[in-house]
Amino acid sequence: MARADLVGRNVLVVGAGVTGRSVVAALAELGVNVTITDGKPEALREFGDLARPGLTAPPEGTDLVVTSPGWKPTSPLLVAAAQAGIEVIGEVELAWRLSEGQTWLAVTGTDGKTTTVGMLESVLLAAGVKAVACGNIGLPVIDAVRAGYEVLAIELSSYQLHWVRSLEVAAAVVLNLAEDHIEWHGSMEEYGAAKAKIYQGAKTRIYNADDEWSVQLASQGNRSSGTGFTVGEPGPNRFGVTDGWLVDDGTRLCPVDEVRPPGLHNVSNALAAAALARAYGVSPEAVREGLRTYQPQPHRVQLVGEIDGIPYINDSKATNTHAAEGSLTAYEHVVWIAGGELHGAEVDDLVASVAGHLRGVVLMGVDQEVFAQAIERHAPEVPVTRLDSRDHGAMTAAVRAARALARPGDVVLLAPAAKSFDMFEGYVHRGEVFTKAVQASA
């Protein structure tokens, strides 16, 4: 159902959070008959007569359902809509149908999405392009479309991609894939299939040659041109690293030591951002300026203070083992603050791969025993401090314990490799508590 077809139709919006509010505003602007529902009646107060709390089936006469990304496909309301033959889409698909003449550059992956999209936005702005980072990074895509930006640098989650139907972006990348959100998608294969939707109809498919899943997903049904990148020496027509420089088929783009935050995984993110920008036609000079001036988002390899000459790094966003490995290997010697909710994930491979970097480990959270056993198996000589407290005040004790373990030349790194909800409101809250604990101890 395109823009012109929406006028006067009946659309049900599912979910009254940030995304739902933006969708209602956009549809109302078009003259659509909107109804909105949510499982929490208090979330619907601002919508007045448009609100229908707790629906389990679409109202009679509904022509389209637009769901917020957090709602599972198995939700009774969405199942009922599908059984009734009503099309169900997400906010991103709706934004695509309303977009006119805008260029979409899209990023997904298990880790690094927000950093890559931020880098891409910085590069585009350095090139003088009216661009904005949007999507899963915080600003709904539909708001960016309505605001009239020339280019959208879009972060897309697997939840968002599950509901796309006709998306055809100018250039897209899957950065990497590791086990995550399986409880939502049902299997790793379904998770990968959702991520692969970013490539459907893309004019340029950009893939990470160092990640098997990225290569595989980019090659499926490939009707578009493909561009690979690697943190190693690139082959012809690829992005990579040569003599300490990020390069595009031999053209120098940016010195590796100007990429921030540090770490090989962020060099990979920078290469992805550069490839997307170059697909749009951005000059090498603008790529370098954009990467040099990029300011990382909070809670992502963020220096939050120094105590006795030891840097304290907040990477609370490292909520899985794949992300934590990238942070831990960015530094030679690390006192690691780890732990939280693993949801069944294993940490043996992570500990084995980073054992040589560990100076000491501080464990907290509900699943710390899993970490402790892995360290005993793969790094038995590394001292471990365990904290029993389950409230977020334990972070102050964690910083003190890390301070006692750290030596000159080390960094103290919060890279939990686990979810945060056993002790905190989310990774942001966890990172904020860590930052305050460091600043209080300085």
TrEMBL record:
Query: For this UniProt entry, what is the primary localization, expressed as one broad class?
Result: cytoplasm
EC primary class: ligase
Query: Is Oxidoreductase tagged as a keyword?
Result: no
Q: Where does ATP bind?
A: G109, T110, D111, G112, K113, T114, T115
- Biological processes, Gene Ontology terms: cell division; cell wall organization; peptidoglycan biosynthetic process; regulation of cell shape
Is Cell cycle given among the entry's keywords?
yes
Report keywords, A-Z. ATP-binding, Cell cycle, Cell division, Cell shape, Cell wall biogenesis/degradation, Cytoplasm, Ligase, Nucleotide-binding, Peptidoglycan synthesis
For this UniProt entry, what's an example GO CC term? cytoplasm
Identify the stretch annotated as signal peptide in this record. none
* One MF term in the entry's GO annotations: ATP binding
Please list the reactions this protein catalyses.
UDP-N-acetyl-alpha-D-muramoyl-L-alanine + D-glutamate + ATP = UDP-N-acetyl-alpha-D-muramoyl-L-alanyl-D-glutamate + ADP + phosphate + H(+)
* Pathways per UniProt: Cell wall biogenesis; peptidoglycan biosynthesis
Tell me which residues make up the Mur ligase central domain: 107-277
Location in or out of the cell: Cytoplasm
Write down the EC number: 6.3.2.9
Q: Which residues form the Mur ligase C-terminal domain?
A: 299-417
What functional role does this protein have?
Cell wall formation. Catalyzes the addition of glutamate to the nucleotide precursor UDP-N-acetylmuramoyl-L-alanine (UMA).
| Family that this chain belongs to | Belongs to the MurCDEF family.
Full protein name: UDP-N-acetylmuramoylalanine--D-glutamate ligase
Q: Which organism is it from?
A: Kibdelosporangium aridum
Gene expressing this chain: murD
